[in-house]
From TrEMBL:
Keywords: Hydrolase, Protease, Thiol protease, Ubl conjugation pathway. Residues 316-917 form the USP domain. It comes from Crotalaria pallida. This is Ubiquitin carboxyl-terminal hydrolase. GO terms for biological process: protein deubiquitination; proteolysis.
Amino acid sequence: MCGRSSSSAELSPDEERIMIRDIALAAQANSKEGDTFFLITQRWWQYWIEYVNQDHTTNSYDGSSLSEHCDLANSSGLKRPPGIDNSDLIDDAVSEGSSSGMEIHDTLLEGRDYVLLPQEVWNQLHTWYGGGPTLARKVISSGLSQTEMAVEVYPLRLQLLVLPKNDRSIIRISKKETIGQLHRKACEIFDLQLDQVCIWDYYGCRKHALMNDMDKTLDDANLQMDQDILVEVINTNSTTSYQENGSSQREMSSVLVEPPKSSLSIAGGLSASRGASKSYNVELSSSQNLNSVVRDVEHPYGTSGVTTRGSHGGLTGLLNLGNTCFMNSAVQCLVHTPEFAKYFREDYHPEINWQNPLGMVGELALAFGELLRKLWAPGRTPVAPRPFKSKLARFAPQFSGHNQHDSQELLAFLLDGLHEDLNRVKDKPYIKSQDADGRPDEEVADEYWSNHIARNDSIIVDVCQGQYKSTLVCPVCDKVSVTFDPFMYLSLPLQLTTNRTMAVTVFTCDGTALPSPCTVTVPKQGRCRDLFHALSNACSLKQNERLLLVEIRNHLIHRFLEDPLILLSTIKDDDHLAAYKIPKIDNNTKYLQLVHRRREQNSDSQMVSGWKPYGTPIVSLISCDNAVRRGDIQVIVNRMILPLLRKGGNVEQAAASETSIPKTTPDQCSGDTCAANVVSNSVNKDGADSGAPPVPTLPLQLVDESNACIDLSMGADKVVKLPSSSTMLVYIDWSQKLLEKYDTQPLETLPEVLKYGPVTKKARTEPLSLYTCLEAFLREEPLLVPEDMWFCPQCKERRQASKKLDLWRLPEVLVIHLKRFSYSRSMKHKLETFVNFPIHDFDLTNYIANKNNSRRQLYELYALTNHYGSMGSGHYTAHIKLLDENKWYNFDDSHISAISEDEVNTAAAYVLFYRRVKTDDAAASNGV
């Protein structure tokens, strides 16, 4: 490839691996603030890792230490990687209109899309392989103590708004730059003097703080990704600031989507300070303001006399202490549960159970109560939940540190811990549950509930606990066991799409058919062998044929997908794949790769800009048993492009040439004989015509090993020197005259593996109903996992019983967990399924097994947590309805913004909070 150094050709793959490993170890030992790291596409990096480890044992790359994974391995023989190609990281649409230079996609994740390399490692790889573009990022200090090192992959993107000029500009700037540097940059952009300008924290198009501490960093000032900064031009004559009117503010206001932040592992033990996706589903609302991780500062705003954020009761945010959005979102939902808000704002201390060995000696309840009171106090700035986080880490070490955690797991711990701290039962009696033995369900259910309340009685039980009926049936003796167990929340399964649709364009190399798109269904977590099998059936592959699968990029073959063990997950939906029907020939053969070129017209003049690749390459086989002549290649290429000949065209007149070469037509052979002829160099060596029409000479260029082009249109008998690689690259230059005879349009439309638009639209118009999830949860199913097998009291053996759940008693507040995260032995996966959940009138009446209860079971949504991004990273927010205002808000760590009810339901919804609706037919009993 152009730009690649020849010096690396002297090194074996193993020598490259050892050299990079040693460079990485030295770089990691000396990492410090201010160092430069470079992004490299995960796809290229993974290929290089496999290339340099192909003689070792197979492992998988998980994004951890770079030096460790220089010892990664793969057993298959791989060719040397091409030049580095970072183009899949670049957001061309944003970069073209950006004043801040080249922009990368906001959806990138480390370990999935890119790897961070120390400068020394990047320099060496770039020297060997060339390519680009170069994407450099700086190491900054991070964390509460500012002693942790992180690579700032996504610097702050700020929108500068100027009044009274009404200009605006979007800039990129490190969060470690100072307010003074931002001030100077704004003046340079808008050609203003420093003493003419004051700048304001303009979050939500409101003046929150005058940013006049020039030495404070933007991180300390709590500036967030995609935030507005007001650049106010001062009237120097009257020394009064320009006062914008309401209409001006409305004109300048803009809805911004702030990408979430995560802290991900990178090479050398650093972390990547970065933003995740703006929109993981095209239906996400544009007003879902996703906040970045911010430092824990007690007073992040200036004392300017302007209104502070969260001035109304219940509208106070929580500062992110470093990946604590999982905690903040869950806490806000609990804090805004009316029963809890009322309880903890009153004197709850008499109910603290100081002696409960299952509790936290009251400390968790006290910390939560204090935090709730702060969040409901009017007029406060965002609260730093450090005391609560400390208590949480003390009693639940799994939530310590600054890693991302599961918000639902935290919620489950909080509800259980608060219950034990506030359990009114000081001495729990021992009660043995009795089997139903044919007694009425109502009697048995009340007995179970009474026994439960005798040991568990708290505000959590009053509000959140319900009861379901569990029925087990022994498959051997038909023994039926019925129990009535309490629940704190319902974990509902989502429909898991285990298959994936992939579109591949299939080509023939024998000139018998035009290329045709072929769509197949394969396992989502499958391998290339699954795709081979599906394509073979779909395209009616003959016994004497096989498929060659390749990825096409920029009209060239980017990589050969010959290894059947390649994971299909490495093939993205916007990739382009082609498959070539190749004869099964064991003889000595090479691939003949035909790349199409045409002259591009300069838009500004009549000049042409040279030959440029276009369309899709075609691949055939060429036999290397005998000497290959230029005329042999002409014969094979003529055969390959024969289906492109226009109707009424004459193959003998298709090319303007004075020379003709004998030709063997594909209809002269069949079966194995035809397969042999396809790869044979079927030129009459004596130049005599054996009855077949002459083959026209095409404008072909053979690329030799020194990248020089050899003209194949002359000297048909000249022997061609075969390349050492398995592929022979030939260009065909399509002149306008040649295009009059051939129609290359079938080569120009290569579909994507899967287009997002129609699929997403279909999923959005046909959503999965919350009722469907509930029905799947309540459906009878066998206990398939061995550890879940039931001990049958009648058989005295462990049996694979069938289990059926039914709702019996519902709580005042029903918490529903949507199981988006799935786990298996080898992988973890997040389901992006859109669930259509009702906000009003969630009717569960027909799902209650207790038919003696006439009370209507209606619920209304008042809060939910959202998760954006992938598993192990991403960002949590909460949507909460302030019942007193009857208005929805988005709680994004310290930032709170109003949203409409239409924006509540998205594919990011994770944990739902419903309150019982008081109805006229409410029963007097509080038992249901």
